[in-house]
Amino acid sequence: MRSPAGNAIETAPLPGCAWVPDFDAVYEAHLDFVWRTVRRMGVRPADTDDVVQEVFFVVHRRLAEFEGRAQLKTWVFKILVHVVRHYWRTHQRKPGDHAADDLAELQTLAADHEESPTARLERVEALRVLDGLLARLDEDKREVFVLAEIEQMTAAEIAEIVEANVNTVSSRLRAARQEFEKALLRYRAQELRRQS
Amino acid sequence: MNDLGPEARSILEAARGAEVPTRADRQRIKHAVLLRVATLGAVSTTAGGAVAMSLATKVTVAALTVAVLGGGSASLLAWKAHTPPAPVASARTTPRTSRVSPARPVAAPEAPTVVEEPSPKPGLPEMRRREVARSEARPAETVSVPVTEVTPAPVPALNSLDPELAVLRQAQEDLRAGLPAQALRRLAEYDRRFGKGALDQERRAIEAIALCQVHPGPAAQAKAERFLRVVPESPLAERVRSACKKSDEISKQSNGIVPGREP
Lengths: 196, 263
Known about the structure:
The complex is a heterodimer of chains A (about 200) and B (about 260). Chain A has eight helices and no strands. Chain A has helices at about 25-40, 45-60, 70-90, 100, 115-135, 140-150, 155-160, 165-195. The model of chain A is unreliable at about 1-15 and about 95-115 (pLDDT under 50). Chain A has one domain (about 25-195): PhyR, sigma-like (SL) domain (Butyryl-CoA Dehydrogenase, subunit A, domain 3, Up-down Bundle), CATH 1.20.140. With about 260 residues, chain B is an all-alpha fold. Among the domains of chain B are: about 25-100, no CATH class; about 160-255. Chain B has helices at about 5-15, 25-40, 45-50, 55-70, 75-80, 125-135, 145-150, 155-175, 180-195, 200-215, 220-230, 235-255. The longest helix of chain B is centred in the middle third of the chain and has 21 residues, at about 155-175. Mean pLDDT of chain B is about 60; it is low at about 40-70, about 70-160 and about 255-263. Chains A and B meet through helix 1, helix 2, helix 3, helix 5 and helix 6 of A and helix 1, helix 2, helix 6 and helix 7 of B.
């Protein structure tokens, strides 16, 4: 089924038409962002497979219940957030605690990308810095920040996903940006001291 | 401070799309997900809860093992104890067929409540600005999949396991019916069709149990010992051990040796 915009996956069912998204298509379309978000949410690389699996396992089980009233991506993200929150609880560590351990495990970075070694190193460095900075945010702020600034979701979408109202989301995002900037300044200052 | 500076934006920009799963990751994860789905279909209601608790692929395979052999919930629970519990799939599992069908209603009462239809409320100004800019500058952000990909397609990972699973299930049924020789014939069929298949470990467990029932003696014991040596942590280890211990006792009794009184 194709929507007027040509977006097959996001298409809402026609009245009276029992349309259910195909799991394969959902998987292929959403794996990258699920994987990326799971990583940015502070799940350590060694656990990434398990957490991503869990997300898609739930997606598979609940796919028939998806009625197409919301964007599929939002729906998948909501499942992702639940799974990641559970991960944090069961691991009893705050997201990002593993960041320092994980720096050497960015080898999956852009594995399929055709880019120069220099560009790849720059990306690795950016991710290393990013994970270090994200680790300084608490869970609520980190969720909102990742969804807004990396996945570029709207406040309304994030509010739906994290089950908070839009004002709360905006407030968290504002605070997260401030903390992120401060953390970046501290990081740069440390770098400068180290170099001098 | 409502917005990020250029350096922060640069870092975030670099992160977008930078870390992606490899082709191998994609296949491995999908296979694991579909295997779990298949496991739910294969597993009985007694073992299903335990199966659904698993997170890792290895546990899924173990669960599948138990599903195939049946009645192994206790050993699976023991196995599960070493694995972090899954957040959402933890309770009752209704029997299902193992065929993956996205259109089939899937009961997941314990899964996170997912409410559709976000209610758009006015956001703060910066969020609104970003929404507008995004809609213009990033049309590809929303998921776009060709219609051909959306039409129901075969799921090779799961489908490739179905035939193996079916044969092993039949073999298990034979064992339950007290027909170990018939179970061994099924395993011969399994070998002929799949060679060293994906469920070879499970196949060897069934073989050891069947041999210990039909031909108790050194050969059966050797099979069982080999299985236990190779995969001592298998959730089936206890079943194999138990089945072959009985056969060993029977074998010794038939040879006039009283268990526990050997020289």
